[in-house]
Amino acid sequence: VKTLYLIRHGEALHNIEERVAKIKALTEAKLLGASPQSAKELAESARQAVLEDEALKDAALSLDGKVMALNAQAEINQLLTEGYQKPSCVLVSPLERTLQTAALIFPGHKNTHVV
Q: In 10 A of CB 31, how many CB atoms?
């Protein structure tokens, strides 16, 4: 029997910027008297604009994202105490936020591969 752990990266800096852009767009739309649908479209457009920022293409984890990863590590460690198997291999994408997440959850794992 093999156990597969699938873990998503924690919150990254671009996630924060997306939220800020959406809130700002919604606030501005409300002040301008935009319809709810127009406000929603403006917020989505603002969110997508953040993702076009080259500085955020490979965003690092936020402080909360690091805490999320450490919480995931604690959950994995709890599973190990309950008899689940330790991962024999860690596969991670080359994105900064995923590398940071893997390093925090599985520090020093000898069989980590960037794919």
A: 8
Q: Is the pLDDT of residue 36 over 80?
A: yes
Q: Are 114 and 94 in contact (CB under 8 A)?
A: yes
Please state, in angstroms and rounded to a whole number, the distance separating the CA atoms of residues 106 and 19: 29
Q: How far apart, in whole angstroms, are the C-alpha atoms of residue 30 and residue 27?
A: 5
- Give me 111's structure tokens: 């069989």
Cα–Cα dist 29/70, whole Å: 38
Mean pLDDT of the chain: 94
Output the six-digit token pair for 19. 């939220």
Q: What residues pair up with 113 in beta bridges, in sequence order?
A: 91
Residue 34 has φ and ψ, to the nearest 5°, of -70, 150
